[in-house]
User: Fold this.
Amino acid sequence: MNAPLKAAPLAAKDFKSDYKPVWCPGCGDYSVLVAITKALASLGLRPENVAVVSGIGCSSRIPAYTSCYGFHGVHGRSLPAATGLKVARPDLTVLVASGDGDGYSIGGNHFLHACRRNVDLTYIVMDNHVYGMTKGQPSPTTEPDWSSKLAPGGTGLREFHPLVIALASGANFIARAFSGDPNGAAALIEQAVRHPGFSFVEVLSPCVTFRPEQRAWKERAHPAPVAPTDDPGRAARRLMTDDGFNIGVLYQGKRPPYRAPAAAAKSAPEALAAAFELDGARA
Amino acid sequence: MKKKPQPQQGAYADFMARAYAMELEAVERYAQFAEQLDAHNNPGVAEMFRKLSQVESLHAKRILEEMGWPSLPELPVAFAWETPEGPETAAFESAHYLMQPYHALQIALQCEVQAQRYFENIADGEAPRQVREAAAEMAEEEREHVRLIRDWMKKVPKPRADWDRDPDPPGMGE
Assistant:
């Protein structure tokens, strides 16, 4: 009898699709795509065992550029779709891709509850502090004094602080990466996938078209000066005083991930359909 | 009959493998830039990046031939550059949809200068003699590339100060 063939390990390029990205040249999202494919290769996964789920925005185009299963959903709703998928198919590795508009504004409420539920997902948010796809409106993470044609003089509004919100809401792993270091970002994404529960990786990903000044982020990004902590109180103090450019794992919690009750998956389709019947509708 | 080169071991082979990986990263990045500029209807600059990618691939091929490697051998440790990426790899954010050939050459010049310094540091360091000699040779090659690119830049029009001004910047439909 022939021994079963062992599949050869895959390279990063094996996780890329034939579709060519249409992001603006210089966009940090190219680097994030490289980082994701490198991380998946390094994890020894296969495309058929990975799903990439997204919402709407430049960053949400990523599923099409990978050879994994993909779901390009509606605006801000990537996390509910990914949660359902992971609960139904816990054997899959599920990555969720989003941007600061899709993830923190339109999808802000889902972000809170995905952190709270702690389903084993890896949420990668490409944050460029602007709505790039729709030509440069301020987003929840835009600085209050950023002046542009669409917001002369700036919004004057305080920025959303996604890492603090993630910690307060119960995320089990919090990291910040920088697209200027695709290998470093790949290593952080790999750690996030390995960590059980809801892992949140914010990637600083410049939009050189609408925020050309973000090219200077490479001078500002720096490794986090302290090791990751599993103490939420300590992490909260660090994140509240964070300069926004600390790169690395900032919190690694120990909360067990959500597991769907086994019985829930055993309902027959007929039984589910019957449960939706209105009284007397079957006359 | 010409003797077939044999795979080599040790610090020299590690150094050459690193030099090869450095060239490959540059080949890949220039090819990515070419695709990006093609997608944004900037064929002149796309063609220039394709040329740069081809030039780097010739350098990579020469290293393989010199070492007698059919492909990059398995490496003892993962490559960890002192910079986020290889010294000859252009940063993703250095591209722009309105860039002109002169900008592409500026990027190439910066990469060649970084590569030259990288090899010079090894040549001036405390590596084994064979490695230092090879590094000095490569640094000289990179110096030559720097000269070539500077000459090339003299033949290409310099962009105007407002080259990236666009009253209607790109938007993307879903």
User: Anything to note?
Assistant: Chain B touches chain A through 25 residues (CB under 8 Å). The first helix of chain B runs from residue 11 to 39. The domain at 11-154 of chain B is CATH 1.20.1260.10 (Ferritin).
